[in-house]
Structures
1.
Amino acid sequence: MNEVIEITLRSIYVSGLATLLSLSISVPSAYYLSRNSRVARVIIPILEALIGVPTVFIGLVLYMLLSTRGPLGFLKLLYTPCAIIIGESILVFPLITAITYRVMHNTWITYGELAITLGANEKQTLMLIAKQALPGIIAASIMGFSRAIGELGIALLVGGNIRGYTRVLTTAIALEVSKGSFEVALTLGLILIVTVLSFSALSRIIERWYGL
């Protein structure tokens, strides 16, 4: 039981940090694209296409980069939680950016141009758009987190499924299935679903609490 709790908390920790890391890049990128429609017409379709890239492919590329013979092997990140965090942040970046762009683009059309017309400076306009787009950003974050915590290929390839160190819910499920322990695997799967639903419900509570 203690190991299950440990795996669950590690999964939340790793996927949560991956989502935050991706957000730190996705939100500024989405804002830039919402202000530059010509660039957005090229970049957004590419990002939307990348959403469907198999996680095992991202894991394989990252494995080759971080392996001993790879160009980033000197960092010694392979088979560490950091490697999973980096991989999952790459995985959810196109998803979060594409969704956030749609929200910010609509917000810019509705509020941004009006704010500038009324004399708002760049910083004030940015704050206004961020505030109005916050519910959409939260929704994109939850979708990114759900995508990250539910992926297997990256966690398995660059994490190694090391007990007590890099084992997360999805890799634990795969391990139990390979052992024929389907009841344990099903239990872990239910925990994964409950975790995702709990964070989704939490986001709704936050939105209502702040009147978003």
2.
Amino acid sequence: MMILRREWSLILSYGTAAVFYLFHQQMLERMESPLWATLAFAWLFAVILLSAFAVVRHSEILASVVGEPYGTLILTFAITAIEVMMIAAVMLTGPPVSFLARDTMFAVIMIVFNGMAGLALLLGGLRYHEQSYNLQGANSFLAVILPLAVICLILPNFTESPGGTLSTLHEVFVIVMSLALYGVFLAMQTLSHRKYFLGPNEPDEPHTGNPAEILAAPWHGVLLVAHIVPIVLLSKQIALPIEFGVNLFNAPEAVVGFLVAVLVLSPESFAALRSALANQLQRSVNLLLGSVLASISLTIPAVLVIGLMTERTVILGLAPVDTIMLVLTLALSMLTFASGRANALLGAVHLLLFLAYLVLIIER
């Protein structure tokens, strides 16, 4: 009974998935009603969000057992898996030409670098005046994020393939390059240069978790997977009201990518904000920059593979306005994470760019 009370969102999420799958045709017919589509989206969004927060809760318990940077990686991989599955579900229910991966990746970069990192730096700076982090770790993240972002989101506009797409050869190259770069980065983060991703005063020693938590770790791993499964099941269902709402209100396609990014990033962003307010800026940096790196280097290859297997056209090249915002964000981030210390001013500047991004979504 205690477990049931603690994991009540698991019952809710599986129950919701069962209702939507058993009565799929009836639900589909009711999507013609704006009120029903809105209610269905709000309900599915809330249920998926609850499951995502449960994933974070169990991954944080596992993180306390394995220590850093492995704890952050558990959360990053869990959230990235959710992201890939949601994008795949929306892609497979949408048109044969997909902008979703591009819009979601761009939204992830804007939300994390400008929205959440800006808010974390602002709140942490207001509380502690100045916070420190490991400069070498932040620079390592940026050294991989920068080329991947440019090659995946800007370069497609300058190849001979039309409309911001890549040729089959280029897509295979991007898949292999992204995975190889991320593999090299993981080896450095977990083996050869682990100390780069620890706080300035954090000892580089083997982590020994609480004995009770170590014994419960397999159970939390099972529950983590159990909470991810309904997210996968409901991802395809939430795609229907999203597409209906975009068509009904003639909203920009970028709204879909923004909503997917918000849903996926909410739990991880909340964990990063809590760490910044607890004066653990290093964990915030690991979570935020790690989520961007994993999103680009794992999600884009997965989407390209899906496109090749289903013969769907994946558009990756950004529009000119978005390209300017991306370059400005990356340049500002290199300045922000260039000293090993952060303050509220840096956070305010990033938040300003995030507000500009929101305005440009609404009207260009």
